[in-house]
Amino acid sequence: MPAKVGYLAIDTVDPNSLAPFWCGLLGVHVDATIGEGEFLILSPTEDGLVVGFQRVPETKTGKNRVHLDLVVDDLDTATAEVEQLGGRWLEPGTTRELEGFRWRCMADPEGNEFDLDVLPTDS
Question: Under CATH, to which class is 6-56 assigned?
Answer without folding.
Answer: alpha beta
